[in-house]
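Quick question, first post here. What does this chain look like in 3D?
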Amino acid sequence: MAILQIKFNPAMDWLSRIFEGSNRGVSWDSRSEFEDFDRAIAMSLAEGRRRHGFSDDFLRKEDERLAKALHGRQKLDPPPWNRNMNRNANVHQPPMSISHSTGYRKCAGCNNVISHGQYLRCMGAVWHPECLKCHACNLPISDNEFLLSGNYPYHKSCYRENHHPRCDVCRHFIRTDAAGFVEYKVHPFWAQKYCPRHERDGTPRCCSCDRFEPKEIQYAALNDGRKLCLECLDSAIMGTSDCQPLYHDIQQFFASMNMKLEQKIPLLLVERQALNEAMDGETNGHYHMPETRGLCLSEEQVVSTVSRQPRIGMGNRVPNTRIEPYQLTRHAEVTAILVLYGLPRLLTGSILAHEMMHAWLRLKGYPTLRPDVEEGICQTVAHMWLTAEIALLSRQGRRSPPFEKKLADFFKQQIESDMSPVYGNGFRAGNRAVLKYGLQKTLYHIRSTGSFPN
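> Answer (accepted):
Ran it through. Tokens below.
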């Protein structure tokens, strides 16, 4: 299953906060700039007189206050938008003008008139300083810069908290690289978002559902080194005796397709090491790397099987497994079916259905098949069993745990999206044939020709 890799530039429109009023000014570089500034203010005053008909007394007081402000402007500090704003390529200066409130101006925040003192001009409107508020925390924006997302202003810190991607594993903000890009990966089924480094830093992954272990949750540790998330642990089959009811259900599933197995085949749940040792002792078979989860044996050997045990102990650790030796004796082409212990019922069942199909082909005398044909038809039967289980869960409705159906969908998707030439391509060819011709006609064609029908 391919992991999605996301890389994007989170920079948006960084705006400078503009304070305008009599106690803020600009350091000008030439007399002509002073004159232009004075001319602009004079025009603004004239425009205000024409539009609003202010009284002479009001206008005289405003003129006196304006003259004082202009007289002392060279002593004022440069405004914040002139302070190294272009050092960051993500900061954009909108065109702004500095003026004094002498006319009718309406605050975009409170809709009241701005008559005197400081005001802000940004986002195509004017504001009282206390009315320009962060969309996230609803507090006034007192920073010199803020982030505009859509039509909403944010503090830098509030935007980061609400919109910057956060890793679902370590819970930290995902780092931005030197070029300003945020790069992370997303699990294609579970949509778990994580830092790419977690694929290399030893962060545990559930051996069933493939999700990384989040920082605040401790996965269950199996004795053979695998980790199991708590949702998968809930339905995990931990021993050979616990698996017998499931084995019976799958035998019934085969019988319903007119494929009843007459021979009693031992089913054993084993640890990873025992499965690998049994695989080394086999002369036939095709194995799905990087890890094999099931095996259909045809050789005589001694296998260490896991007997029944508690599901979990102290500190989310599965108690030491009780291992018993089991001597396999060859009476037919199949001596036993082995499946990894500690996997959820649905995954255990799909593995068991796959291995039982191997056993059925051998016991029915099918010739040696190409790997993609044999593994393809076995994966097709496993997929059919999962489909039947999903239908059953849907009929049960609220009686079945919600995660159970989600897990079944995941295991189905794993089969469907497998890109390996033997298992993945084999399944897709086998599934197409079964959907077109049915299982029995497909099997007849395989027996006759050693390949899938077109």
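The chain is about 35% helix and 15% strand.
Residues 144 and 321 are 63 Å apart (CA to CA).
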